[in-house]
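Example record used in the benchmark description.
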Amino acid sequence: MEVISVQNVKKSFKKFEVLKGISFTVKEGEVLSIIGPSGSGKSTLLRCITQLETVTDGSISICGQTLVKDSVYASKEDCLNIGLKVGLVFQNFNLFPHMNVLENIICAQINVLKRSKDEAIQIARELLKKMNLSDKENSYPCELSGGQQQRVSIARALAMKPEVLFFDEPTSALDPELTGEILKVIRSLAEENMTMVVVTHEMSFARDLSDKIIFMDKGVIVEEGTPEQVINNPQNERTKAFLSRF
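Model output (structure tokens):
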């Protein structure tokens, strides 16, 4: 089953075209890594799929439901329902600084999904245990390391029970030691067949964990395929040049 379908998506900011006709699909349980230089449109693509940006043209379907078709969006209610099927983990954590860890994880569960506080707390504590953060539920974001903050943000996304999880450079704000913590968590989610789309600069991670890899540059998909094809045996000269730095 296709969980994500992106067809000919374009995005412009005034006269600057950031995405120039992007098309790809993601099947249930797949891990797709998107690689490429800064400014290639990777994060904008994720923001379009997760409704943080609107597309200029093209179509996006999520879990069989049409979010936008030929630049015409579904109803507000349908867009909200589709939005609940996806979770997004940001590179800079985006935790609420005035809330402790537990409050950060239960807030959207209660206010958006209308779960009871007791149920939300139970789900939050199960996820904190999974993230090895059970002892941090009363801590505030400023009291946590970057790796701990990112694990809280992953737990917050998972608490909403999304069908697909998006990661936008989840390790870019972390030092190498903390990066390993986050990659371990993402690896464990992949082993549970979580459908994921990961924008990353971690080439070894992309190679070892992905089912498919897309290499983007200047708003287009330059090359796509399996890790063996894209990382180990790239055909395009631009892909070869980019990977030669790693």
